[in-house]
Specification:
By secondary structure, the chain is mainly beta. It contains 3 helices and 20 strands. It has a 10-stranded mixed beta sheet with strand order 1-2-3-4-5-6-7-9-11-13, with no helix packed on it. Strands 8-10-12-14-16-18 form a 6-stranded parallel beta sheet, with no helix packed on it. It comes from Capsicum annuum (Capsicum pepper).
Length: 334
């Protein structure tokens, strides 16, 4: 290939061989169809390929992508690809040196996970498939991704239980499974091991069908709109670096004193709305809510008085709808 192209925007070549090794065309305003005869697939030495935020409407993800055996980063997000089926998905997931794969926000994509160990299992560190329609259970083969740090599978029409194998992801930092139809009881064998993964710092399970009594809580876990029940776990009080607590629309019950949250000095977002919780202030302790709070959502939480809100000096959003407040709002917050 002529070395002239090496001076083009978004093109990076190997200085020794002249081979194109990176193609960074994200946000390029590109329009058209990529098919199996595209000259793109002549760039067999590519290591990074970014075609995100373009418009390749009606383009299929061609089996020719498996010719990029040196590829470490592949980003086809937000580019209107369609038709991720069967062996085509296999060719993407089995690229042997792949570290980052992002097919997210292509809501016309449909596909299937490989059922066996992926060739990229040892190298893959980031996998983002948000909004790709799988209409399937989470496969056990995800447990082979032992190097993965971030796994995003939101809005994927996934169903069934979280497989035991996900507890093998000992390097994972972020796991996003929200807005699916996943189910199962928490705690269970898998969920306990997953919650206890030391590396896991962000876990989003909202808008699924998980049930059970939550005996253990992992920092920065979002569990809104499930079917969890019982008391709030006392382990929440020990999470002194917790920033977000989202438990909207479950079936948690019991009286919860506002002093329960007094040691969470970094808490910014608190949402307990639409459970069967009654928030009380029996001890009448001043400044019981952390001053770091910017959003408090306590709809239908049996709130009767507002003295405990005076400590929330940085408050930006407040929802107290459907409560039993007996005193004027301005008086209590003055």
């Amino acid at each position: 290939m002529s070395r002239d192209c090496c001076s083009w925007d978004g093109v990076i070549c190997n200085e020794m061989t002249g081979h194109v090794i990176e193609l960074n065309l994200g946000y390029g305003g590109l329009v058209g169809v990529i098919n199996s005869t595209s000259s793109l697939f002549q760039l067999s030495h590519l290591q990074r390929l970014d075609l995100s935020m373009n418009n390749f409407s009606n383009s299929h993800i061609s089996p020719e992508f498996d010719t990029f055996s040196s590829l470490t980063h592949l980003d086809l997000s937000w580019s209107y690809f369609s038709g991720l089926f069967g062996t085509i998905s296999e060719s993407i997931f089995h690229l042997p040196n792949l570290e980052t794969l992002d097919l997210s926000e292509n809501d016309q994509l449909n596909g299937y996970f490989p059922k066996t160990k992926w060739n990229s299992s040892a190298s893959l560190m980031k996998l983002d498939l948000n909004y790709v329609n799988f209409s399937d259970n989470l496969p056990k083969s995800l447990g082979y991704l032992t190097s993965v740090h971030s796994l995003s599978l939101a809005y994927c029409n996934l169903r069934g239980r979280i497989p035991e194998s996900l507890s093998n992801l000992t390097r994972i930092k972020s796991l996003y499974l929200q807005y699916n139809s996943l189910n199962g009881t928490i705690p269970s064998g898998c969920s306990i091991r997953m919650f206890s993964l030391l590396s896991l710092s962000h876990l989003d399970l909202r808008h699924n069908h998980f049930s059970g009594q939550l005996a253990y809580f992992k920092s920065n876990t979002i569990l809104s709109k499930n079917q969890l029940q019982g008391h709030l776990p006392n382990s929440i009080q020990n999470l002194v670096n917790l920033t977000d607590l989202h438990l909207l629309s479950n079936n948690f019950s019991d009286n919860v004193d506002v002093s329960f949250f007094s040691d969470l000095r970094h808490l910014s977002y608190l949402d307990l709305s639409y459970n069967r919780i009654s928030l009380t202030n029996e001890n009448k302790v001043k400044c019981t809510l952390p001053g770091s709070l910017v959003s408090i959502r306590l709809a239908a939480c049996g709130v009767r008085e507002l003295e405990f809100l005076k400590s929330a000096k940085q408050l930006f959003y407040l929802d107290l709808s459907n409560n039993k407040i007996q005193e004027p709002l301005c008086k209590d917050l003055s």
